[in-house]
Amino acid sequence: MEQRYATNPDQIPGMGTDELRERFLVEAVFVPGEITLVYTHHDRVVVGGAQPAGQELALLPSDEIRAEYFLENREIGIVNVGGTGTVTADGETFTLPTGACLYLGRGVRDVVFADGPGAAEHPAGGAQLYLFSAPAHTTYPTRLVLPGEGTTRELGDQLTSNRRSLEQLIHPGGVQSCQVVMGVTSLHPGSMWNTMPAHTHERRTECYLYFDLPEDARVIHLCGQPTQTRHLVVADRQAVISPSWSLHSGVGTAAYSFVWAMAGENQAFDDMDAVPVDQIR
Ligand SMILES: O=C[C@H](O)[C@@H](O)CC(=O)C(=O)O
Ligand SMILES: [Zn+2]
């Protein structure tokens, strides 16, 4: 498991492109036949992906978490951005069609990922299970959320090119968890901006996985403190780690979707501090 220590915002002014990308971008989330995991010390979040590619992949602990099994002290949110996949948790198999979300709570011992029926028919060629995990101090039940079963908010406007549908999947009003708040936002055709006007939330770390972005398109992702912004150029199925002090907004060269997921002090989705556009530098 790759380990990334926390970054102090005071370090940003001296950072160039390569260092920003090393610290905040996860370029290879999905590797066929593998589970990739990045452990960040920002709220001890683990983010990554599982792409079975015809194999069965077991989620195993690693030295960084010093646990008997991966979910001994953790919970995990899983969103499938590829073809139908399955997750077998302590012997119970859940089928995740494209866009489905599964929550596994603390104490689930055996977790195995695999392709589901018809997985290869998806453009991704198989299941691609995005993983977001945080420490958990109690157990909540396993829950499967099928596409459309979440709580949807319609945001933005075509006139400001930020028309988008935000679906909350794991959140206090839906699937119960200790820390993880997770959902998917999809830009409407012709809209390019997500999370603009921007915001920060010093109570939570947030990760974005951008997906369904055309291969030759990119998202210019704004990060950093509001008056000391930087950007990351992000390709399809790459993830961004946003520390609590960082705004997180993006504009694409084509429409796209992204999985957002947060962990930290609280689970209050609306606990965010707006950054007026005219104050961004
Ligand atoms: O704290 C909330 C997260 O940044 C996202 O849910 C915001 C988002 O999907 C959007 O506005 O497009
Ligand atoms: Zn946010």
UniProtKB/TrEMBL annotation:
BP terms from Gene Ontology: D-galacturonate catabolic process; D-glucuronate catabolic process; pectin catabolic process
Query: Where does this protein hold Zn(2+)?
Result: 199, 201, 206, 248
Q: What is this protein called?
A: 4-deoxy-L-threo-5-hexosulose-uronate ketol-isomerase
Coiled coil regions in record: none
What family is reported? Belongs to the KduI family.
Which pathway, per its entry?
Glycan metabolism; pectin degradation; 2-dehydro-3-deoxy-D-gluconate from pectin: step 4/5
Q: Name one Pfam family in it.
A: KduI
Q: What organism is this sequence from?
A: Sanguibacter inulinus
